[in-house]
Amino acid sequence: MGAALEIRNLHVTVEDQPILKGVNLIVRQGEIHALMGPNGSGKSTLSNTIMGHPAYEVTAGQIIFDGVDILEMEPDERSRRGLFMAFQYPVAIPGVTVANFLRNALNARRRMTNPEDKGIPIPAFRKLMIEKMDMLRMDHEFAGRYLNDGFSGGEKKRAEILQMAVLEPQIAIMDETDSGLDIDALRVVSEGVTTLYGPNLGVLVITHYQRILNYIKPQFVHIMMDGQIVESGGPELALHLEEQGYDWLREKQNGSGK
Amino acid sequence: MATRRRVAREFQAPPLTRADVEALSARYSEPAWLREARLTAWDIYEALPMPTTNDEAWRRTDYRHINWDSAGVLRAPNGGRVEDIPADNRRPLLGGEQGGMIAFVDDKLVHHEASAALARQGVIFTDLRSAAREHADLVRQHLMTHAVTPQLGKFAALNAALWTHGVFLYVPRGQAVTLPAHSIFYASRPAAMLGHLLVVLEEGASIDYLHENLSPTMPSDASFIGATELIVGDKATLRFVNLQDWGRSMFEFSTQRARVGHDGQLDWITGQMGGKLVKAFMEIDLDGRGSWGRMSALYFPDGQQFMDLDTQQNHNAPHTTSDLLFKGVLKDHSRAVWQGMIKALPGAQKTDGFQANRTMIMSDHARVDSIPGLEIQADDVRCTHASATGQVEEEVLFYLMSRGLPRLEAEKLVVDGFFVPVLDRIPFENVRERMMAYVERKLLGEV
């Protein structure tokens, strides 16, 4: 049975402000989920909390990954266990090449299984990089550039997908909250996801963009409003959103809730 | 109690005398001109007051805690051997090759090799004492006469009077030397060490040169009162890398100055890692039309280390270009000072001067002072400066950690990347690797 990411009744505050108010969600290896919702509904808070960003405080609930509660783990340990997050705004690291960075990241993984590991040999690493870049139809010179330094929006996304391809996570979260503003970036991400997707990869795509189905084929669609997942369904839910917007959900919420 | 001590303590001079100068000169049977030069410098030394924190250049550098009883005495050479120097530092610079290597343990010459290729080109690469005898005219013409002079300051004068050991590198006119030269000063015991580097490139000559200052940490204070003179002739090209990895008991007071002739080029890279307190004056004089000088530094103090780097870029002729890039990382309770001055003389038109000091602070207790300065007396110039101090941001660390790198490795990657623009200017791969490894040990707190 594949690994699963299980979010149970998650409550999160940022600077004492409650943002997530009881989120429940399960993403398994081999599944593609889309999480949608209006601005400010808590989508980015969820992705950052899953990855362990220090500014987000979990006040209740659990995040279980592959059967283990990961809430007390640092971001690096979550990553080495097989979680990945593609950042909405990747950070530039001047002076550190994409290749050098990825070799360090791979070696950190190898040392987790064997503390004595001497690191991936350079020829093997080079072969791996070329294989992954070819698979993503990327120019090889990319590996020698400083990570995200002076990258265009599309290049940053490409770099995120390349990292995902090399690190081979079990569950990947694609934080594309604002990507409705940048269709190219969303296209890069969805092509990448489509290429890498398989029985060993589970994906949670977080987006504001309602025509997501033009680019990606999720089996599950969830809608978040005001810190909770208020509706879950299949691809038809995204179609419905495209036609109706979020208003019908708000009305439904008001009608049933209060 | 502490207050009383601070008030009572004064800026004291080391317990050295004119008799020390005479004894030193006699011990090495120096020629009369050199003995005279030393004594003249001693007079200048005696006439100058010890610098205090009332002097602008020393305002932030309080060295009153130095114990001159151990750090200010000259000691006769002991049984130092080249094997005392860490093997890593002795490795050849390019694969298995270098043009020559000179090593001192304290003031004792323990190793001297120069390749036949260098000799064929007429290159002189030898210890300064021998050079003063065997190449008296050359040494006399350049030693403390127009780059570092005794008048430059108290410690420059002291070095002129009492330099205990040194290296002389001379490249004749038109000789392009492909293999680099390498020298090491290794201090093994608490004492005053007065090392001197004299580099002279005649017109059209070129060479790469690495010098390293090293010592273990000693049980009591030691001092290095150094002078470096880089004389780059017309159309000559010198790339000079100077690395410092003193033990934590070392006080360095050094005066380093370069003069560059017309269309000459100087690429000067400094790495500052060790020491208890470092006060280094580094100055480039662009004397000839069209000359170019670049100063780069990487410095990384930690613990209680104090580093004060004082730079000056003098544009003395038109169409001269200077470029300074210093990058520092500070840990723990360390402190660093950079004061940089760009000067352009009247008539130094069409000059271009730039200076930038960039620092990354990794502790709330560390502190850096960046003091840029411009003194421009020509009207058609472009002189600018920049400095920036930052911390390793949490967002950056989160990003790197989210890829599986533990916090310390993430920090190391950021620091490596920060130093890369300066590291890339070091032309020796194994020296770059050594520096990276050293940075890692510093971050891990293993140094």
Kindly describe this structure:
The complex is a heterodimer of chains A (258) and B (447). With 258 residues, chain A is of the alpha/beta class. Chain A contains eight helices and ten strands. Chain A has two domains: 4-90 and 169-257, Rossmann fold (3-Layer(aba) Sandwich); 93-150, no CATH class. Helix content of chain A is 37%, strand content 26%. A six-stranded mixed beta sheet of chain A has the order 6-7-8-3-9-10, with helices on both faces. Chain A has a four-stranded antiparallel beta sheet with strand order 2-1-4-5. Chain A starts with a strand and ends with a helix. Chain B has one domain (15-392). Chain B has twelve helices and 20 strands. Chain B has helices at residues 2-8, 18-27, 32-47, 68-71, 87-90, 116-120, 128-134, 136-142, 154-162, 394-401, 407-423, 429-444, and strands at 100-105, 108-114, 124-127, 165-171, 181-186, 192-193, 195-201, 206-214, 222-232, 237-245, 250-260, 265-272, 277-286, 292-299, 306-315, 321-330, 335-344, 351-361, 367-376, 381-391. Chain B has a ten-stranded mixed beta sheet with strand order 2-1-5-8-10-12-14-16-18-20. In chain B, strands 3, 4, 6, 7, 9, 11, 13, 15, 17 and 19 form a ten-stranded mixed beta sheet that branches. Chain B is globular. The chains are: A alpha/beta (258), B alpha/beta (447). Chain A binds chain B through residues 51-55, 74-76, 78-80, 84-85, 87, 90-91, 93-96, 100-101, 104-105, 108-109, 112, 146, 163, 167, and chain B through 394-396, 398-407, 409-410, 413-414, 416-421.
